[in-house]
Amino acid sequence: MTDAAPLLKVKHLSKDYHGVDGNVVRAVNNVSLSIANGEVLGIVGESGCGKSSLGRSILRLIEPTEGVIEFAGRDLMMLNRSEMKSVRQDMQIIFQDPYGSLNPRHRVGGILAEPFKVHRVGNKADQRQRVIEILDLVGLPADASTRYAHEFSGGQRQRIAIARALVLNPKFLIADEAVSALDVSIQSQIINLLNGLQKRLSITMLFISHDLSVIRHVCDRIAVMYLGRIVETGTISDVLDSPQHPYTQALVSAVPNPAKRREQRIILQGELPNPANPPPGCHFNTRCSGMNSTVQEQCLMHAPQLVKRQAGTQSHHTRQLACHLYAPL
Amino acid sequence: MFGENTLLEVEQLHVSAGPVPLLRNVSLHINRGEILGLVGESGSGKSLTALSVMGLLESPPMDTTSGRIHFNGLDILKATDATLEAIRGNEVAMIFQEPMTSLNPVFTIGDQVMEALLLHKKIDKPAAISEASQLMERVGIMPAELALARYPHQLSGGQRQRVMIAMAIACKPGLLIADEPTTALDVTVQAQILELLHELRRENAMSMLLIAHDLGVVRHYCDRVAVMYCGQIVELATSDALFMQPRHPYTLALLNTIPALNPRGVELPSIAGHVPSPESLTQGCAFAPRCDRATARCSSEEPPLSCDAHAVRCWHPIDASALDRKIRND
Questions:
Q1: Are A288 and A282 in contact (CB under 8 A)?
Q2: A230-248 residue pLDDT tens
Q3: A58-77 residues touching B, CB cutoff 8 A
């Protein structure tokens, strides 16, 4: 399903936001990851953990503070505006809110033809042909192109947003909470659609979501973020079936499973600390239940590094963990 | 009909906006100390049911065309504004989904938590302050004195929802209506808030109407559950019965679509079509166009809600014994 050469490689990526009062929020903190061709990597975390900032930094929709982004062998940080624009044909994004992300004044046909105009590809006839194709691909009738976004339901609008992202045949797609705003019955349709399209077109994907049960259905691998840092990463089954980081354990346990009665769950104390003033050492040390006297000093003083815990069958399947409770491999 | 143990009873409630029916024939009751869950997709009438019970329907455009709502012996629909004001926030309280917008930004947390106490309990300010700080401690905001002096924007989302809960339970209401109380919160904070509500309900012997679209939340915290579709209750049963032996095809379809209940790598079951708009409803069963069990009768004649303990509104309900549910009781 995936070959070894990563399509996207991110190294030591950080993104700072500067507040008016001189506060600096490090939303993305030294994140490194790679995604193989045709692979889907899930990013999970709670609001404010930096997962959307990470996605936008990778596309340089917001400018990363430091780090390297290699896409298909090119260093994106070295590209100028117009070079970056041409790379974006191959890198697209879908947003959470299908109500806010489609222009209400344009017909769907116009919305879907826009990428052709921006990137100056194809003539009118090609565009028309491709718009009909892509509408069919996302399960909308051809006459949808003459209608306005407001005439469609939330699920249909998300299909339009997916069509727009895919209309130029990108290699890489970021889905930022793309199914979170939808009702369950619609959500499953859109998950199926994304899964089907991803396989059929072998698109490489970064799938950002706060919902672990959705991630499980869409992704091959997962990276768990907490306050700007990746704390655990590995294959879906490794991480979700036997989570090791205390935060991942709490996250997995907090999701109420409708198949079961209320059971003992790990209920975390407190909330996400203020990202402008994160605790020193491990960012999770204010809520961690696993911390004990042997490691406590480490946890309070030193940020744990993301290190290999377990070698996978393939190099990119390696499981990594940032926690002082576990000795490195 | 109105039993000693019943706190709230809604009978054949119809609400419409002009000619458009929004709630159709909604009947339910909540016993003392019980948590009733209300689930359904957006637009199914969950919040409207809650607002009707509180006597908070925006009228016009909305109007209760028929039906009765009895709370603790009081006829809500016939009650005067003064009577309603005396019970709202006192005997019935409500928490909303949006902790960001349901607090007043220009008043301190203390002012807002004390409002109900000063209004309903007729106590003086020092007494109200001490009671407010006890409430803050109870919902887990400490140090309480400091928090009371703060403004809503200085608190996090989870803390604001705790403040909303403190305000709601200030007068020890018999009934708490919680409308998607954790939808806007992160999962780890959601778990905290739900556990808190669960404890408070036990401590105060409070009844709850818990509105949620997350079936996992409903399964874990509700005694009985009503499923709504297009302004109607289509199934009402104990939480165990509903999840293990759903009888309405919509309930079954809804349960089947849950990602968590499906193995990886398979296509998720989905419900074909979409929820019809209230204007476009025809005379038959509202779910018939999307239902794989529908017959000619379903599109011409509306099924009634059956009168048994496991109530279902369907001409061809699923035979419980024939069903092999994935949901176990463990």
A1: yes
A2: 999 999 999 999 999 999 9
A3: none
